[in-house]
């Protein structure tokens, strides 16, 4: 991406999310932010820093450590006409709120025969790679993507971090936004006039003709880095950023696979029963006769993420692993 | 608790018209539930079916304190609440028939009655799950400066759930206009309260969160009504959430497939002596407020309503299977 | 003669122990008689016979554990003569172990199935099942479209899998060069294939490629009604311009004469789209992209036609770079499957070898092949003047199912026109 002076600027993913929240709160009085330490502390990841001063404690609402309670309250507030942004500090803690998300938010519209929709947005930090060990390193977005009735987003770029929130708030149904915590410090270009973006399409982030890598979130950048390396060897990798994990935009990745005839899914979730498995299956269903190699997956090793740095790195999908796997898939036998 | 004596007092406990209204409401629930049980055994209704017999005074008494603008969040034993709140008996029964004329288009069934018109938010069948929802509805009202009450029904079983404690704390912390109504029927399905809770005074536990809490005889519709009015008034006066424990008893099994191994027949019989309908009828009669003719008229009126409801449900249509995946995501954008 | 075998009493029963015979040799048996008791993993089970006849021989002795399907006894049908002792099966006892069922017995279901047979499943010996050809779904599809026999194609993928590149007639170069120590560009890292499974001898693959070409060309000649048109073209303007252009470039970046020819073909195809595409399923399927398959002879023998993608949209410099890259990679390694499958038309230039006119065979499912012969100085009359000009013969081989000669002639005319206006290339 080129930076044209005057029309583009640089900011971090964190700042992009914060700007998105701020803009939403200015645009719509019904929008408020609620979660653990979002106010006086400034947000666990400093996303909401400064917002309390700007909007006051009514709209930047600190909650007790009661994920089920405040997530459910967010759902209720959405039912009651508000547009809450519920921040669950990390996706790991979403398990404490899973009842409200899955048993209430995802089903109210259906159980009520279409009478009650739930326009709540739930933001969660996700992902491993920061040496915070098993209980704080989970990537559960694939789990939630299993559930009909909710939408699951995984913004990877600064542009998406900036633009997806508003569209999510405008959506009549519950939307979960998984923000990979490794991305908060990432700086990226953003058009000065950048605004809302769609939340239903995948994007081809790099064109290539030899293989398609399908990924999302922080893994997207590993895929892009691997593509760069592979290009030096003459392997042109197409990289698809899923962006939305539910509902999946399969048309985009199937079209890509139809062009490249090979697919590798890179997913920070565990492989068994994963989103990667779902994508692989859809490719099998929708692009079987275009495949020139079996669909491959690079997922997190089937182990709770360990604390030790070298072990954690070995467990997570890495650039070198992507490069090696792609070479194996594209090359012949040695 | 000792059964209240059906005192042969001449002092009128209630105005005649209102008394008849309360009695009619309770009878409607009782006869409706009887019909549901019958239709269940005739396989017209399937799935889980939880009946409210014995607890009628709670729904009737509490809902008297609400206005049309208030919201109700209920549990899976909610036929009575829906009826009293104003959801048509035919729509409720059609729902149990799985017909698209049902109040949830047949998508919910007995446990998931919903009605936007009366702000009836279910029909929540995860024990404790409705409490955070009620907190959120009240939060929305507060933030929008709407002076409304959200009334949340739940059972004694919910008190063991984390969501109960999280919700009471949140509501008290933020002084939200929620009326928490605990229908303490002494059993969480088959586990008696004393086997589930070390401290069985539920009102005392609610009070520990910093909200006004009271316990009331849930078999006495007037007592429930009075307590509910008082609590609702306090909420409307901005005093924050209120908690009402209604001590009651369900006469029927937990659901249709329940051998009731966990309680004695004698215990059930003892509680039936305190039937809220029979005892209230006695009081009205004792005060000379009702005649046999009144009672017959009520029964006839209720029977007619239920017959019409059955006919409505029977005549209902099935939603086309092509519509199966509707109502997973909204079909319209929001303003 | 019928065999009475160890039955399968369930999918999970692998073997059974003969506990007891309830008959002896010479006894008469009737269908449904219980004649043996067998102990399985679950229980002792009485076993019925499904023949009427005489027990000819008890083959397995009590106490022996044998696999399902093992012959336990031989039953002689009524009226059948007793077998001579030599014909009898030798009891397999003696080794102390479980008897191995005789091969014939193992594949023979109890005889005379006049009535529905019991579910006696007999394990079939894992014979030399016809090796399934391993090919990717995409390769299978391409082969089917081109009428190629997969068994005739070399597989260069992991474990010998046939991939799209193999169907296209391309052979992964690292396979063509066994023994070279330098890895091919595409495979910077050796794939983890055990040496035994790695690169078969080059000859095999050359033969495989020959077969692939043979199959495609045979199909072409069999199925495609070719027609041929030829046109002599004056190249003086094109070559003059090329010379001038090349003066501006370092030697390494100079443009070869074939490049403007390719570009002219691409542009002319833009005016004759009926020649650019595939004949599939009995109809012509035009292709939007003009991808020119350029025939490249391999030093090892054989021929591949990788595609110059979107040739009509590329500058001469880009085309030259692409062509140089293709040739290098075709001969040294690293062609990609897409390059070998995406050609929408083929150009063959055999002028280097002195050939004057090319009569090409169309590469199915394409519908046209353009051939270029040698550029020769020839007398050329124009406007009543005779001059010596560099001239080449361009030919069009086209599929008569897709186009007629009239259309083909228009194409050649357009080709000529572009070559007379080289500034437009």
UniProtKB/TrEMBL annotation, chain A:
Gene3D superfamilies, A to Z: 3.40.50.920, 3.40.50.970
Keyword Oxidoreductase recorded: yes
Keyword Oxidoreductase: yes
InterPro entries associated with the record: THDP-binding, Transketo_C/PFOR_II, Transketolase-like_Pyr-bd, Transketolase_C
SUPFAM superfamilies: Thiamin diphosphate-binding fold (THDP-binding), TK C-terminal domain-like
This protein's UniProt keywords: Oxidoreductase, Pyruvate, Thiamine pyrophosphate
Signal peptide: none
Single Gene Ontology MF annotation: oxidoreductase activity
Cofactor: thiamine diphosphate
Span of domain Transketolase-like pyrimidine-binding: 11-186
Entry-linked Pfam families: Transket_pyr, Transketolase_C
Name by which UniProt lists this protein: Pyruvate/2-oxoglutarate/acetoin dehydrogenase E1 component
TrEMBL record, chain B:
InterPro entries to which the protein is assigned, alphabetical: DH_E1 (IPR001017), PDH_E1_Alpha_Subunit (IPR050642), Pyrv_DH_E1_asu_subgrp-y (IPR017597), THDP-binding (IPR029061)
Description of how the protein assembles with itself and partners: Heterodimer of an alpha and a beta chain.
Origin organism lineage: Bacteria, Pseudomonadati, Thermodesulfobacteriota, Desulfobulbia, Desulfobulbales
Keywords per UniProt: Oxidoreductase, Pyruvate, Thiamine pyrophosphate
GO molecular function: pyruvate dehydrogenase (acetyl-transferring) activity
Cofactors (names): thiamine diphosphate
SUPFAM superfamilies attached to this UniProt entry: Thiamin diphosphate-binding fold (THDP-binding) (SSF52518)
Name of the top EC class for this enzyme: oxidoreductase
Name of the protein in its database record: Pyruvate dehydrogenase E1 component subunit alpha
From TrEMBL, chain C:
Annotated Pfam families: 2-oxoacid_dh, Biotin_lipoyl, E3_binding
KW Acyltransferase (keyword) present: yes
CDD domains: lipoyl_domain
Domain Lipoyl-binding: 1-76
Principal EC category: transferase
Gene3D superfamilies in alphabetical order: 2.40.50.100, Chloramphenicol acetyltransferase-like domain, E3-binding domain
Alphabetically ordered keywords of this record: Acyltransferase, Lipoyl, Pyruvate, Transferase
Keyword Ion transport in record: no
Domain Peripheral subunit-binding (PSBD): from-to ranges: 134-171
GO cellular-component term (any): cytoplasm
Cofactors named for this entry: (R)-lipoate
Organism domain of life: Bacteria
Residue span of region Disordered: 80-101
Assembly: Forms a 24-polypeptide structural core with octahedral symmetry.
Family to which this protein belongs: Belongs to the 2-oxoacid dehydrogenase family.
Name used for this protein in its record: Dihydrolipoamide acetyltransferase component of pyruvate dehydrogenase complex
Provenance organism: Desulfoprunum benzoelyticum
Lineage: Bacteria, Pseudomonadati, Thermodesulfobacteriota, Desulfobulbia, Desulfobulbales
């Amino acid at each position: 991406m080129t930076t044209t002076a005057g029309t583009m600027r640089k900011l971090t993913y964190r700042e992009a999310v914060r700007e998105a929240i701020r803009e939403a709160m200015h645009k719509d009085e019904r929008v408020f932010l609620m979660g653990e330490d979002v106010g006086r502390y400034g947000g666990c990841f400093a996303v909401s820093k400064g917002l309390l001063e700007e909007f006051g404690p009514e709209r930047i609402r600190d909650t007790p450590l009661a994920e089920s309670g405040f997530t459910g309250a967010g759902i209720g507030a959405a039912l009651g006409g508000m547009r809450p942004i519920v921040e669950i500090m990390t996706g790991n803690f979403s398990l404490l709120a899973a009842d409200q998300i899955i048993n209430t938010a995802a089903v109210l519209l259906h159980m009520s025969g279409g009478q009650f929709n739930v326009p709540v947005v739930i933001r969660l930090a996700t992902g491993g790679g920061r040496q915070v060990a098993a209980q704080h390193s989970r990537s559960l977005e694939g789990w939630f993507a299993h559930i009909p009735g909710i939408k699951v987003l995984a913004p990877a770029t600064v542009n998406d971090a900036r633009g997806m929130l508003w569209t999510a708030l405008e959506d009549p149904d519950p939307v979960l936004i998984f923000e990979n915590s490794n991305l908060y410090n990432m700086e990226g270009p953003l058009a000065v006039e950048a605004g809302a973006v769609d939340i239903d399409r995948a994007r081809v982030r790099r064109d290539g003709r030899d293989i398609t890598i399908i990924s999302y979130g922080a893994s997207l950048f590993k895929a892009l880095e691997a593509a760069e390396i592979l290009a030096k060897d003459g392997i042109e990798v197409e990289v698809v950023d899923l962006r939305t994990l539910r509902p999946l935009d399969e048309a985009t990745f199937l079209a890509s696979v139809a062009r490249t005839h090979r697919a590798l899914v890179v997913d920070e979730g565990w492989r068994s029963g994963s989103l990667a498995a779902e994508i692989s299956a859809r490719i099998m269903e929708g692009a079987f006769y275009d495949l020139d190699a079996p669909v491959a997956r690079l997922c997190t090793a089937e182990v709770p993420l360990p604390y030790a740095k070298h072990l954690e790195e070995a467990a997570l999908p890495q650039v070198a692993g992507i490069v090696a796997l792609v070479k194996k898939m594209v090359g012949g036998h040695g | 608790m000792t059964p209240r004596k059906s005192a042969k007092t001449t002092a009128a406990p209630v105005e005649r018209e209102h008394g008849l209204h309360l009695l009619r409401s309770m009878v409607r629930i009782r006869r409706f539930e009887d019909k549901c049980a019958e239709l269940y055994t005739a396989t017209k209704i399937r799935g889980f079916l939880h009946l409210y017999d014995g607890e009628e005074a709670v729904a009737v008494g509490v809902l008297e304190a609400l206005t049309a603008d208030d919201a109700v969040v209920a549990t899976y034993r909610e036929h009575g609440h829906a009826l009293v709140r104003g959801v048509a008996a035919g729509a409720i029964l059609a729902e149990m028939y799985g017909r698209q004329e049902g109040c949830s288009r047949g998508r919910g069934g007995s446990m998931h009655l919903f009605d936007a018109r009366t702000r009836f938010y279910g029909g929540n069948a995860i024990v404790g799950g409705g409490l955070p929802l009620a907190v959120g509805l009240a939060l929305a009202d507060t933030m929008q400066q709407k002076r409304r009450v959200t009334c949340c029904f739940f059972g004694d079983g919910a008190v063991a759930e984390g969501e109960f404690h999280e919700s009471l704390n949140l509501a008290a912390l933020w002084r939200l206009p929620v009326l928490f109504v605990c229908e303490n029927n002494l059993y969480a399905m088959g586990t008696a309260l004393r086997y589930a809770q070390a401290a069985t005074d539920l009102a005392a536990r609610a009070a520990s969160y910093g909200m006004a809490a009271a316990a009331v005889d849930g078999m006495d519709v007037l007592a429930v009504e009075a307590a509910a009015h008082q609590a609702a008034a306090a909420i409307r006066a901005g005093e924050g959430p209120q908690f009402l424990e209604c001590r009651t008893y369900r006469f029927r099994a937990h659901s249709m497939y329940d051998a009731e191994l966990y309680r004695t027949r004698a215990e059930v019989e003892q509680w039936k002596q305190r039937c809220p309908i029979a005892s209230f009828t006695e009081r009205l009669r004792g005060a000379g407020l009702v005649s046999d003719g009144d009672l017959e008229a009520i029964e006839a009126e209720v029977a007619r309503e239920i017959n019409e409801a059955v006919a409505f449900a029977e005549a209902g249509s099935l939603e086309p299977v092509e519509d199966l995946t509707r109502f997973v995501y909204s079909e319209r954008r929001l303003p | 003669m019928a065999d009475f075998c160890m039955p399968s009493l369930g999918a999970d029963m692998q073997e059974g122990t003969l506990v007891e015979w309830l008959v002896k040799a010479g006894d008469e048996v009737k269908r449904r008689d219980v004649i043996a008791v067998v102990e399985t993993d679950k229980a002792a089970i009485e076993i019925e016979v499904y023949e009427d006849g005489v027990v000819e021989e008890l083959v397995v002795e009590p106490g022996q554990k044998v696999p399902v399907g093992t012959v336990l006894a031989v039953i002689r049908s009524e009226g059948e003569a007793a077998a001579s002792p030599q014909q009898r099966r030798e009891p397999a006892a003696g080794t102390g172990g479980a008897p191995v069922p005789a091969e014939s017995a193992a594949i023979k279901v109890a005889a005379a199935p006049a009535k529905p047979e019991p579910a006696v499943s007999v394990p079939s010996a894992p014979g030399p099942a016809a090796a399934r050809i391993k090919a990717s779904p995409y390769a299978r599809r391409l082969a089917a479209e081109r009428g190629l026999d997969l068994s005739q194609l070399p597989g260069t993928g992991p474990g010998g899998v046939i991939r799209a590149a193999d169907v296209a007639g391309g052979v992964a170069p690292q396979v063509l060069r066994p023994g070279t120590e330098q890895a091919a560009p595409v495979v910077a890292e050796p794939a983890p294939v055990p040496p035994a499974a790695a690169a078969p001898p080059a000859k095999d693959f050359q033969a495989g490629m020959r077969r692939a070409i043979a199959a495609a060309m045979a199909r072409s000649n069999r199925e495609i009604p070719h027609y041929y048109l030829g046109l002599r073209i004056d190249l003086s303007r094109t070559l003059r311009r090329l010379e001038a252009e090349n003066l501006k470039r370092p030697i390494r970046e100079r443009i070869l004469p074939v490049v403007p020819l390719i570009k002219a073909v691409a542009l002319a195809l833009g005016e004759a789209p009926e020649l650019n595409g595939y004949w599939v399923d009995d109809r012509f399927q035009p292709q939007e992209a003009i991808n020119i398959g350029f025939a490249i002879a391999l030093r090892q023998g054989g021929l591949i036609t990788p595609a110059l993608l979107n040739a009509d949209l590329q500058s001469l410099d880009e085309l030259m770079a692409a062509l140089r890259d293709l040739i290098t990679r075709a001969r040294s390694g690293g062609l990609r499957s897409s390059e070998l499958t995406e050609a929408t038309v083929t150009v063959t230039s055999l002028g280097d070898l002195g050939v004057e006119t090319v009569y090409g065979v169309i590469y199915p499912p394409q519908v046209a092949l353009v051939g270029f012969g040698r550029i020769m100085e020839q007398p050329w009359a124009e406007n009543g003047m005779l001059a010596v000009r560099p001239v080449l013969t361009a030919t069009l081989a086209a599929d008569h199912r897709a186009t007629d000669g009239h259309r083909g002639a228009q194409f050649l005319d357009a080709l000529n026109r572009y070559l007379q206006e080289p500034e437009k290339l």
